[in-house]
Design goal:
By secondary structure, the chain is α/β, with parallel strands linked by helices. It has a single domain, classed as Dehydroquinase, class II (Rossmann fold). It contains five helices and five strands; from the N terminus they run E-H-H-E-H-E-H-E-E-H. It has a five-stranded parallel beta sheet, with helices on both faces. Strand 3, helix 4 and strand 4 form a beta-alpha-beta unit. Helix 3 runs parallel beside helix 4. The radius of gyration is 14 Å and the shape is globular. It starts with a strand and ends with a helix.
Length: 151
């Protein structure tokens, strides 16, 4: 069974409250519930975690090695600042999909820089909560493809 870790970065616990015109009205709990339903339908195991702490996210990425087949991560503001997250993703060699609720390329200039872009298998942004759904599907497809190449 494919195992996927979903990581939510800083301030995403405020979804449904903060800047709904940018991030939508769905809460993080609602997004996670939809992802669990998707995982059940796809026959994969999924674990979702949130942290406002960069160090905790780094630790979870490191702990994912050997336990998960892929990571789907919304690093939120750490996208634009965290070399530590980049290095953690690079060090575990797990396929990672970067997701964002908003289209970061239509926003402020500083949001157009992702320190993770060079080490993830792809980015999905601008589709609201659907970005997570698409990210999980992309991770599943990628892992299936990698598994079939090994067989």
């Amino acid at each position: 069974m494919i195992r996927i870790l979903v990581l939510h970065g800083p301030n995403l616990n405020m979804l449904g409250v903060r800047e709904q015109e940018v991030y939508g009205s769905q809460t993080l709990a609602e997004i996670n519930a939809r992802l669990m339903k998707l995982a059940d339908a796809e026959g994969v195991a999924l674990e979702a975690k949130h942290s406002n702490s960069e160090g905790e996210l780094v630790s979870w990425i490191q702990e994912a090695r050997g336990r998960f087949d892929a990571i789907v991560m919304n690093p939120a503001a750490y996208t634009h600042t965290s070399i530590a997250l980049r290095d953690a993703v690079l060090s575990v060699a797990l396929p990672t999909v970067e997701v964002h609720l908003s289209n970061v390329y239509q926003r402020e200039d500083f949001r157009r820089q992702s320190y993770l872009a060079g080490v993830v298998i792809g980015q999905i942004s601008g589709f609201g909560a659907l970005s997570y759904h698409l990210g999980v599907l992309a991770a599943i497809d990628y892992v299936h493809g990698a598994q079939s190449k090994k067989a």
